[in-house]
Amino acid sequence: MNNLKNKKLFLLDMDGTIYLGDTLFDGTLDFLEYVKSIGGRYIFMTNNSSKSVDKYIEKLAKMSIVATKDDFLTSANATVIYLKKKNYDIKIEAMCWMQGESDSFSVKNATDYEEHLTNFIDDIRKEFKKYASDDGIAFVDAYIANNPVFWVYCEHVNNSKSVVAGSSLKQNSLFSSVYNLQNLRMKR
Question: How big is the chain by its Cα radius of gyration, in Å?
Fold first, then answer.
């Protein structure tokens, strides 16, 4: 680690880099402690928008990593920073979302999908509230492909998406595919 002594900022991807799923890689805590010991800083980065920063903080805490919001850069945060730098007046009208494939591989994830999706939408609306349009942030979601051979529990995940879209007090949309917008459902 002698070559690292002069480095003060470390940008770290998370899943597959410091942990896999819920398992922290050996040496991660030692490395993070080393960075602090040389007066350095690390920032966790992700292009996975399926969790809010608050959820990532909770996840890392379960792995004994203490982190704050200032320790993260997500794809959504990077987008806001970019738009600000370009002097755009940022008002988020809606977020387009396509997720659920990996959740359809296990019965537990598929069963918990409705709760996870609801929590995710609530977390994103809370995290980006100051950028929301006057009538809030709408979510546009898509069903995953109806292929039970590949996506074993796809029907369960898609049913959860439908329930979330239909029961939200806020605006949500759900469509069956990019090419089939006739099934667009909206609730205000």
Answer: 19
